[in-house]
Amino acid sequence: MELKLIEPLSRKLNHLGRAYISQLAKQLGPLGVSRYYYALTYICYHDGRLTQKALANELGKDKSLVVNIVDTLTEQGFVYRETNPADRREHLLKGTAKGKKAAPHIIEAFDALNKSITANISDDELKIFNTVLRKMEANMKQLTSTEINPQIKS
After folding, report:
1. CB of 66 within 8 A of CB of 91?
2. Residues 140-149: what's their mean pLDDT?
3. How far is CA 5 from the centre of its chain?
4. SS3 48
5. FRET pair for 150, CA 20 to 30 Å: which of 23, 45, 120, 134?
6. pTM for this structure?
7. Domains in the chain, ordered, with CATH?
8. Neighbouring C-alpha atoms within 13 Å toward the C-beta of 41
């Protein structure tokens, strides 16, 4: 059987994502945010009205990973947890003064970078791109390991 090399679609998406984050890190270095830019802006936007569970849902991340994200942002001085008075089992996330000062700069960097990387791409093309991404995400959610390649056997 002749081997046909197929590049995983994820490789291109991952490469673009890493390049995007690298560019953000260069622009935002002086703020002292090492990563988790979107999480920080999301927490500041929902200041005090967001639980760790809700953040996990928004980010599409495991709850334990979100604990690490919040811990990192807390250690860096950007956010803090506050016990929810309505349900003491929950923690509400709030931006510190440092976090609230950084968030607009991060959003500005997102906006500028988004505009730069979509230059020469029409609004119609961007709509198609976003539609395709949403469909691919929906397809991924429906997959099971046996559907990917049913010929593989242990």
Report:
1. no
2. 67
3. 30
4. coil
5. 134
6. 0.83
7. 29-114 (1.10.10.10)
8. 13
| Cα gap 94→50, rounded to integer Å | 8
**Residue 129 has what pLDDT?**
96
The structure tokens listed for 19 are 């390049």
- 45: its two tokens: 């936007």
Q: What is the longest distance spanned by two Cα atoms in the chain?
A: 65
Task: State which amino acid sits at residue 120.
Answer: N
Report the C-alpha gap between 147 and 96 in whole angstroms: 46
